[in-house]
């Protein structure tokens, strides 16, 4: 009862930022992302009758505490679905998601865990069922079931049965690139879970954020189909700025931005003024991701590397969905 799966992380172009239900992880809006090939997690799940509890090894080290609890709680869901509630697992994950690059490893982590766990215990899930299961580990992870562009449909039901991601366009549809800009200093972090909760509960800007989503989604989906890079980039950048604006209105107010974050944002806008189409997006942290086209790769990379406070630039193409090894 053993299986190995690989999942890649994803970058949201239309952000998930808030839950309407916390236990099931049901969001307040649809979100849309691009799965990236450069950053991934490979996980082996081995259910064994001889075990009396789950074991979770991450990069060859035993994990305990909160991270371990999140994994066993998620395995409980898999056990529940299969009816095999008395089986424990050895979970062995290797993360190729450098924390320094500012990607949450929870997206690739939970997607790989869900896929390997479900297969190992003998569940035969469709992509939709797998995405719905994965969502309950970490919201953004439900989009990593698919390669290329995926949309997480928020759903309306209270049991979460209609909240899962669907594929929008494959990675072969369009070769757009993402540079992850690594900054030398990081600020004290409000976790994305705590940050979105505080924002939903206290920010007067939150209703405006929610109202603006349908238009952004329609526009970006049209832009992806038409391969209109300026349209997709401009909507993604504006959507990111709106998400971050909600945090400034929260009580107490906070921001994920650092001085170098702003310097990178300005440099990207300057590149555009100089004729290089490049756009930024930022998640719940200070690092910046830059969208660009393959023909501009050398110039974009050089420009980003020369910004004071930038220590590394990691380039990525669109990635694939779940693969079983
Ligand atoms: C996203 N983020 O759409 C957004 C943009 C951060 C900013 O999804 O509580 O780790 O596990 O559902 O998925 C980060 O939140 O949160 C996130 P949980 P998750 O990618």
UniProtKB/TrEMBL annotation:
InterPro entries: GHMP_kinase_C_sf (IPR036554), Mev_decarb (IPR005935), Mev_diP_decarb (IPR029765), MVD-like_N (IPR053859), Mvd1_C (IPR041431), Ribosomal_Su5_D2-typ_SF (IPR020568), Ribsml_uS5_D2-typ_fold_subgr (IPR014721). Residues 181-306 form the Mvd1 C-terminal domain. Residues 7-165 form the Diphosphomevalonate decarboxylase-like N-terminal domain. It is an enzyme of class 4 (lyase). One of its GO terms (cellular component) is cytosol. Keywords: ATP-binding, Lipid biosynthesis, Lipid metabolism, Lyase, Nucleotide-binding. GO terms for molecular function: ATP binding; diphosphomevalonate decarboxylase activity. Its EC number is 4.1.1.33. It holds the Pfam family MDD_C. It comes from the Bacteria. GO terms for biological process: isopentenyl diphosphate biosynthetic process, mevalonate pathway. PANTHER family: DIPHOSPHOMEVALONATE DECARBOXYLASE (PTHR10977). Belongs to the diphosphomevalonate decarboxylase family. This is diphosphomevalonate decarboxylase. It comes from Oceanobacillus chungangensis. The gene is mvaD.
């Amino acid at each position: 009862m053993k299986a190995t799966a690989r999942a890649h992380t994803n970058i949201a172009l239309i952000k998930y930022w808030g839950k309407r239900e916390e236990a099931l992880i049901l969001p307040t809006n649809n979100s849309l992302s691009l799965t990236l090939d450069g950053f991934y997690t490979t996980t082996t799940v081995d259910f064994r009758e001889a075990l009396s509890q789950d074991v979770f090894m991450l990069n060859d080290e035993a994990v305990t505490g909160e991270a371990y609890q999140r994994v066993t709680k998620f395995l409980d869901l898999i056990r529940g679905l299969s009816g095999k509630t008395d089986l424990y697992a050895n979970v062995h994950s290797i993360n190729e998601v450098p924390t320094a690059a500012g990607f949450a490893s929870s997206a690739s982590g939970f997607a790989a865990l869900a896929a390997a766990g479900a297969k190992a215990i003998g569940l035969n899930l469709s992509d939709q069922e797998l995405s719905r299961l994965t969502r309950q580990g970490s919201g953004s992870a439900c989009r990593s079931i698919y390669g290329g562009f995926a949309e997480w449909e928020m759903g309306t039901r209270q049991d979460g049965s209609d909240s899962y991601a669907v594929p929008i366009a494959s990675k072969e549809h369009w070769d757009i690139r993402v540079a992850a800009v690594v900054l030398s200093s990081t600020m004290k972090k409000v976790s994305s879970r705590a940050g979105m909760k505080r924002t939903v509960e206290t920010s007067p800007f939150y209703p405006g954020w929610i109202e603006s989503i349908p238009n952004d989604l329609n526009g970006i989906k049209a832009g992806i189909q038409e391969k209109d890079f300026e349209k997709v980039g401009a909507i993604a950048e504006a959507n990111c700025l709106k998400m971050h604006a909600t945090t400034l209105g929260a009580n107490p107010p906070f921001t994920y931005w650092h001085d170098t974050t702003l310097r990178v944002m300005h440099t990207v806008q300057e590149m555009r003024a100089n004729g290089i189409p490049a756009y930024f997006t930022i998640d719940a942290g200070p690092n910046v991701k830059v969208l660009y086209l393959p023909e501009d790769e050398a110039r974009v990379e050089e420009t980003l590397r020369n910004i004071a406070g930038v220590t590394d630039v990691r380039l990525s193409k669109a990635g694939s969905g779940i693969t079983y090894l």
